[in-house]
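Intended use. Records like the one below are meant for learning the mapping from a protein sequence to its folded structure. Do not use them to infer anything beyond what is encoded.
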Amino acid sequence: MNTKDIEQLIALLEKSTISEIEVGRWGKKIRVSRQGGNMVVQNSGFTAPAAPSSAPAEVASEPKEEESSLQGVAIKSPMVGTFYRSPSPEVDPFVKVGDHISKGDTLCIIEAMKIMNEVEAEVSGVILDIQIDNAQPVEYGQTLFLIEP
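Structure written out for the chain above:
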């Protein structure tokens, strides 16, 4: 599958009333779904070409996480993409370490296939740690934030 195939799947999903579609070819699968109004693209064995302005992302079978001495609820990336702390470079980040947040607050944006997906807090609490630098690639399941409930 190439980028054009994925774009066609997204367009098909946007025009229909279904909330999810999964397609497989040659042992590789891709799933496009709607989650809270956002499009989510998950893949199995498919590597999208890197954007010309970004460094190539390393493909791994499982997300690598550094051991942290901090304890809290881990907010993990729901998809592969690029992590952004704010909606634009000129604006303050959504959250900083030490901020009090409520369940449903926007914590960051993950860009996948030119679609901006907001990641919301699953619990209320205090931001203990932000484990990804701004504009860095993230993997599915990689810890983004630690929150003390």
